[in-house]
Specification:
The chain is mainly alpha-helical. It contains 10 helices and 3 strands; from the N terminus they run H-H-E-H-H-E-E-H-H-H-H-H-H. The protein has helices spanning about 5, 15-25, 40-45, 50-60, 80-105, 105-130, 130-155, 160-175, 185-205, 205-235; strands at about 35, 65, 70-75.
């Protein structure tokens, strides 16, 4: 039975446990297909069952887990559903790029250009890398910087609703990113050229071009990543 002391602990709240469990799902500590039961989870987290029960209900509403006869299971997407996730990302990020062309402040554009320059240096170094160990170190530095670039673009768009919707989509994609191969130097260089095209369109206050290039940019990412993911999930 939950005690009064348990229920008054500062970390024993539905909001805290929701964030903990959500992070564990997104980081694949609780990978797709994992069965989630109230009592074992509460013991694992060191909290009472009540906030875990409420946290699981929230996660089910978000679509990250599915209710079963006994407990829940972390939702596992099919390759077709993952393609839908990428398609939704393309729609949302295209809209953000279009809006950024008219809404971005000079300060936010300057920050985006700074990140573009930093990526340029790393991409050039990757292209010149003479061994795979060096190349992998550079890819590891490029990945978070690329995420920061897209975050900065969302800030340029200055639309909270579009940002929230896109972040929900990116959370789902994050679960499956470890299964998708890292781009080679040629693909990364192409993506960087497209980054430049987008920044140029923003500077020209050209929403049509910014949106069109963003859609092409993400379509390239979708094709390469989804092809590998389909191979992993459905080996021949």
């Amino acid at each position: 039975m939950d005690t009064l002391a348990d229920m008054t602990r500062p970390d024993d709240t539905a909001t805290v446990q929701h964030q903990r469990l959500r992070g564990m799902i997104l980081d694949r500590e609780l990978p797709p297909g994992t069965v989630l039961l109230e009592t074992p989870l509460s013991q694992r987290l060191g909290v009472s069952r009540t906030p875990v029960r409420e946290a699981l209900a929230r996660l089910a509403q978000e679509g990250l887990i599915t209710r079963r006869t006994r407990g829940y299971v972390v939702h596992e997407l099919s390759p077709e559903e993952i393609i839908e996730v990428f398609d939704a990302r393309i729609v949302l990020e295209r809209a953000i790029a279009e809006r950024a062309a008219t809404a971005a402040s000079e300060l936010r554009l300057a920050h985006l250009e700074q990140l573009t320059d930093e990526l340029d240096r790393l991409v050039r170094a990757l292209w010149a890398a003479g061994d795979e160990e060096t190349a992998e170190e550079l890819r590891a530095r490029i990945r978070p910087l690329n995420v920061a670039w897209h975050d900065a673009l969302r800030a340029c768009g200055n639309n909270g609703t579009l940002t929230r919707l896109l972040e929900q989509v990116l959370d789902v994609q994050r679960i499956y990113n470890p299964l998708m191969h890292q781009h080679d130097a040629e693909e990364i260089a192409l993506g960087q050229r497209q980054h430049h095209e987008i920044v140029t369109a923003l500077r020209r206050r050209d929403p049509a071009t910014a949106g069109e290039v963003m859609a092409r940019h993400l379509e390239t990412v979708r094709r390469s990543k989804v092809a590998e993911l389909t191979r992993v999930l459905r080996p021949t």
